[in-house]
Amino acid sequence: MFMSDTVSLYLHIPFCRHRCAYCDFNTYTGLGDLQHAYAEALAGEIAQVGQAGRQEAGAPLHARTVFFGGGTPSLMTPADLGLILQNVREQFDLASTAEITMEANPGTVDGPYLEAVRALGVNRLSFGMQSAVEAELALLERSHDYATVQEAVALSRAAGFDNVSLDLIYGLPGQTLDSWRESLNAALALAPDHLSLYCLTIEPGTPMQRWLLEGRIAAPDPDLASEQYDLACARLAAEGWEHYEISNWARPGRACRHNLTYWRNEPYLGLGAGAHGYAGSTRYENVKQPRTYLRRLGEGNGAPYPLSGAAAAAHRVSDEEAMSDTMITQLRLLVEGLDVDAFARRFERGVREVYGETIEQLEGWGLLQERDGRLLLTERGWFLSNQVFYRFL
């Protein structure tokens, strides 16, 4: 088993006040009464996996980052978040400089709440802004408006947060190039440190898919989405932002360190209902339903690291799968790309020995390039990245 003594922690909070029309994440409404019990169960899972990792490594594992994702983590009380973080610090070697991110919805936070979570050690916030246009927010079934985002960011700065990220969605039905420009300008006016810009995917089983099938909305226009992406690339480059990942831009020094773990295909522990993880050469996922999660954690744990009593499925990652994953994740990094020598050291095979014909084909199509010992997507390949990635599956 490949055992790293350094991991990132993803902590899933599955509670929401309302499930948005486009969302297919593992989230639940109407379960607010479970939040404290869930915090206690999550703390227990942290202890199970942390202790198992300590036994494997012979010392506490180092945690480089912590990320509260959801769902809506900002629905959790500071006391419950504190209980969870206390257990992280007890079970892992968490550096004082570790990045600790919490996702939040505008409208779910106020000044005292933000001050309390900042005092717990949370030092990065990620707000789901999604749009500044009222009609687009209504389509997405978001419960906030742009003024609420303005207030949330201002309160965050006042509470001492110097690292704030905003999410936006483009490629929406009915969205125009001008309305996308309006949202992008509105986001930049808030002086964030990081932006995540996602192209809408209409997922099976969501209300938005039902509306599409019923003819209530038009299918997204991929050509318009490409223009919107190009607009964002040009505008943010002119503003001095670093386009470090296909969908992510940062001010200097503000790239999301937690997500870099995923994109470098490095180990992370996914803890909580429905969380996925990759550590100890094992990929796994936890049970999704919160009540089942609580029951499974209450039954104890006889599973080996990195699994807990909540694990629903797991498999050993073969070298072939690990190589494929490494290609797909690291090529998402537009500046860093895939280090050819590091690939050879890790897998004892050169990247062109494994994927030579595919790489040459993609280079011939102008989607991939090698520069200074790194494989990188070309600018043409940025928006066509899925065409590149599936060839390494």
Strand content: 15-25%
* Basic shape: globular
Averaged pLDDT: 95
What's the number of helices? Answer: 15
Number of domain units: 2
The assigned structural class equals alpha/beta
Provide the CATH topology of the largest domain.
TIM Barrel
Given as residue ranges, the uncertain stretches (5+ residues, pLDDT < 50) are none
Largest sheet, strands/sense/barrel: 9 strands, mixed
CATH architecture of the largest domain: Alpha-Beta Barrel
Q: Give helix and strand order, one letter per element, not per position.
A: EHEHEHEHHEHEHHEEHEEEHEHEHHEEHH
Number of strands: 15
Give a verbal description of the structure:
The longest helix has 23 residues, at 35-57. The chain contains 15 helices and 15 strands. The strands form 3 sheets. A 9-stranded mixed sheet has the order 7-8-6-5-4-3-2-1-9, sandwiched between helices. Strands 10-11-12 form a 3-stranded antiparallel sheet, with no helix packed on it. The radius of gyration is 21 Å and the shape is globular. Helix content is 42%, strand content 22%. Helix 1 packs across helix 10. It has helices at 35-57, 78-91, 111-120, 134-140, 146-158, 177-189, 207-213, 222-238, 257-263, 290-298, 319-330, 340-347, 351-364, 379-383, 385-389; strands spanning 6-13, 62-70, 93-104, 124-130, 164-170, 194-199, 242-245, 248-250, 268-271, 276-279, 282-286, 311-316, 338-339, 368-371, 374-377. The protein folds into 2 domains: 6-263, Alpha-Beta Barrel (TIM Barrel); 319-392, Orthogonal Bundle (Arc Repressor Mutant, subunit A), CATH 1.10.10.920. The model has no long low-confidence stretch (mean pLDDT 95). It starts with 5 loop residues before the first strand and ends with a helix. The protein has 393 residues and is α/β, with parallel strands linked by helices. Helix 1 (35-57) links the parallel strand 1 and strand 2 (62-70).
